Amino acid sequence: MLKIRLRRVGGTNAPAYRIVVSDSRRTPTAKIVEELGHFDPTKNPPIVSFDRDKAKAWIAKGATASQTVKRLIARKA
């Protein structure tokens, strides 16, 4: 099963995240199917940039979004 979730990148005390589609049975750092965008919570306001059409297409194909990704999709609809 595929899952849309966040993958942490960036340095110590400087988190940044990529929004990716990956296999839910693997760790978040495993190989990804597709990268949809990025999320930077350290900025004020936080920067959210990703392709919502691709995310909706993956959800239509059966992928599930994590709770955080669901909030990010709803936040900037």
Q: Name the CATH class.
A: Alpha Beta
N-to-C CA distance: 25 Å
Q: Which band does the percent of strand residues land in?
A: over 45%
CATH architecture: 2-Layer Sandwich
Shape: globular
Number of strands: 5
- Any idea how many domains? 1
Helix content: 10-25%
Write down the CATH topology: S16 Ribosomal Protein, Chain: A
Mean pLDDT: 91
Determine the structural class based on helices, strands and strand pairing: alpha+beta
In DSSP terms (H or I, runs of 4 or more residues), the helix count works out at: 2
**Which value, in Å, is the CA radius of gyration?**
12 Å
Would you give an account of this structure?
The radius of gyration is 12 Å and the shape is globular. It has a 5-stranded mixed sheet with strand order 4-3-2-1-5. Strand 3 (32-40) and strand 4 form a beta hairpin. With 77 residues, the chain is an alpha+beta fold. The model has no long low-confidence stretch (mean pLDDT 91). Helix content is 23%, strand content 45%. It has 2 helices and 5 strands.
